[in-house]
Amino acid sequence: MGQGVFVAGLGAITAIGNNVPECYCSLEQSKAGIGDIQFLDTVHKGEIPVGEVKMDNQELGVIAGISGEFSRTILLSLIAAKEALADSEIDTSGSLRVGLVSANTVGGIDKTEDFFKDFLKDPAKGRLRKVFDHECGCITEMVADQLGIRRFMTTISTACSSSANSIAYGARLIRNNLLDVVISGGADTLTRYTLNGFNSLMILDHGLCRPFDDDRQGLNLGEGSAFLVLVSESVAKNLIHKPYCELKGYYNSNDAFHQTASSPEGTGPFLAMKGSLAGSGFLPQEMDYINLHGTGTPNNDAAEGRAILKLFGPNYPPGSSTKAYTGHTLGACGAIEAVFSILALKYSIVFPNLRFKTPMNGIPFLPVKELRKNIPVNNVMTNSFGFGGNCTSLIFSRY
Amino acid sequence: MSRLIKMGLAAALECLKSGNVDIPGAIITGTALGSIGDSGAFLKLITESDEENLSPTHFIQSTHNAVSAQIALTLKCHGYNQTYVHKGISFESALLDGVLYLKEGNTGGVLVGGTDEITDISFVILNRLGVIRRDPVSNLDLFKGKTRGTIEGEGAAFFLLSEKESMDNMAELVSGYTFYNPESHLEIEGEISSFLMRNALELKDIDLVITGKSGDAVNDRIYLLLAGSYFRGNPLANYKHLCGDYPTSSSFALWLACIILSGREVPPVIIEGGYQLSRPDKILIYNHYYNKYHSLMLVSTYKGVP
Question: How far apart are CA B158 and CA A201, in angstroms?
């Protein structure tokens, strides 16, 4: 189907680094970024660990080049998108057709939360400025305006698979010859809204999360943003530095089981992984690494594990969940973990699944426990599954 | 089940039924704000209960993908499932994805919809922002005079896009296009002309132009300007006095265009300036969202295989 789609630039900001090199450094040193809440204003400080980006909004604003008064989601997005575009060294002011596809789950609700404190006491109160970033689309619009992108922009929100879908959609816009360059990714910031939402669902681990471990107690929330600069084959040929890799496969499927729970047999995850393999033309045994969705909740990891068993068993590729480093960054995790998977390709490395001790009952697939270096990593798969049954897998291959 | 999900699901199921499809190949929806009834309620709960002992129901229902997800869940549809949340072009984004999905050779049809709701809280905030008409106004008088503010609305409209040639098809979606932040009305005219040209058409080939006039003097300035010059020779129609203004209201306009093209009479209530219209063959829908996002959709009578 159509022409190839290549990755020309990367940008990321997470709990383990304010840019891609810093994130890589933490991954290579097995350094997690999860701990006590420092920046989020909540009663759960000291009680629920999270993966925060280690800067306040004013500091983020300085790096982003805009006021720190904007939603933290905008600040994080802009930092990662600017890094990705600069990394690609593509001149977007010329004749290339450039678009932005971003994703998030709660937009600028961090500001709306502050607005509500005053608004609920008196509907005539609350600074209206604080609701201007509320919509998910506001985040994308601000990034597009700052990067000077006018031709095309849109925003996707499919819960925790949001930014995996923005990457897949960016690729389709190129393959359909609508655009030459697409900056695809997403962001989410920690908010009282999501922290309390997940807490009320009782799926937060009050210690450090243990993805794919039999004793796992739930997830740790995180925040961050990542963007990939996707380019067409003809743009890839004229790049200043050669592309990182090719986006070979992507597939979106719905589990159609429950609004928040995965089906026990992992139907959606299985179909997403199988579909991305079919699209890429690879066989299961050709995958050298899987970046697992691996949230650390009993339900997700069991369903993902069973789907892997069914698709790959008995010859499992090395796999790990990097959420043990960053926390679960919701709408951003698809793009953040795509960046991490591409780093695994670039440096021929597989990151360990931190804190793994006990194999899950009935799942013979075991995540990687120690850093593996200088091993052949030619094809990587990354999984993102969300509420509402939205499941997406992506496959990247060495260029 | 929350209001927005109910609206979306009801419209989606009715759409599939009328298209005689049990399970579509893909489900794609657009919503600017998602279930603000639930997000507002959960925000209130967090604030008033000081973040303690919360029930997760509103949180679960508030995810923006809840409508697409609930349709998939109801139908047991494992196909492509997507949700666009980009302000005034959320529906247009969903529609473009649906068209691409079929162009890529996928089959089974695509269910595409637009949904947004109005709530007590959003009404108060929009009112404070000056978006809503301050004095009571009949919807039939919405376009009279030069006043700020509109009648806010809500709704869900769904479409089954089919890759198949069939005499049951209601209309042909010829093309759609959006553009951002035009600098002048001349740029807007240029974009519309180029759009028509790309479809081998001229303005004179368009039998009816449905525009997004909302009754707000600032919003309508562009429509009035174009009506007096660029669109002078075209019959014009309005729709926001029927459904109210909301970010995905262009889905209502597309629904209106489709039922007209499938053979229903043009409702006199939509026609501006006393035009007599018999059977339009080509309808252009032009809507803008705060003069930032501009959207064009071109639909024509389905003529079948030549």
Answer: 32
Which residues in chain A have Cβ-Cβ distances shorter than 8 Å to B66?
A: 259, 388
Q: Is residue A2 part of a domain?
A: no
In angstroms, the separation between the Cα of residue A85 and the nearest Cα of chain B is 21
Residue B7 identity:
M
Tokens read off for A175: 């393959």
**Below-50 pLDDT ranges, chain A:** 1
- Quote the CA–CA distance of B171 and B212 in Å, as a whole number: 21
**Residues in chain B with pLDDT values less than 70:** 305-306
Q: Which of A212, A237, A262 is the last residue of a domain?
A: A237
Would the CB atoms of B76 and A252 count as touching at under 8 Å? no
- Spatial separation of the C-alpha atoms in residues B94 and B161, rounded to whole Å: 12
Task: Identify the CATH number of the domain in which residue A389 sits.
Answer: 3.40.47.10
User: Distance (Å, rounded) from C-alpha A348 to C-alpha A353?
Assistant: 16
B59 vs A contacts (CB less than 8 Å): 193, 196-197, 200-201
Residues A191 and A314 in one domain: no
Residue A76: predicted pLDDT = 98
pLDDT, residue A1, reads 41
If one counts every other C-beta atom within 10 angstroms of the C-beta of residue A180, the result is 21
pLDDT (0 to 100) of residue A329: 98
CA distance B44 to B29: 27
How many CB atoms sit inside 10 A of residue B23's CB?
16
Using alpha carbons, select from B44, B172, B70, B33 the residue that is nearest to residue A133: B33
Residues A25 and A137 in one domain: yes
Closest CA–CA distance from residue B106 to any residue of chain A (Å) = 12
Number of other residues whose CB lies within 10 A of the CB of residue B105: 8
Q: Which of A134, A136, A245, A293 is catalytic?
A: A293
Q: State how far residue B123 is from chain A, nearest Cα, in angstroms.
A: 11
- The whole-model pTM stands at 0.98
Strand A152-156 to strand A181-188: parallel, antiparallel, or no bridges (unpaired)? Answer: unpaired
Q: At what angle do helices B90-103 and A162-175 cross, to 10 degrees?
A: 60
Q: Would you state the pLDDT for residue A2? A: 52
Q: What does the alpha-carbon distance between residue A122 and residue A145 come to, in Å, rounded to a whole number?
A: 34
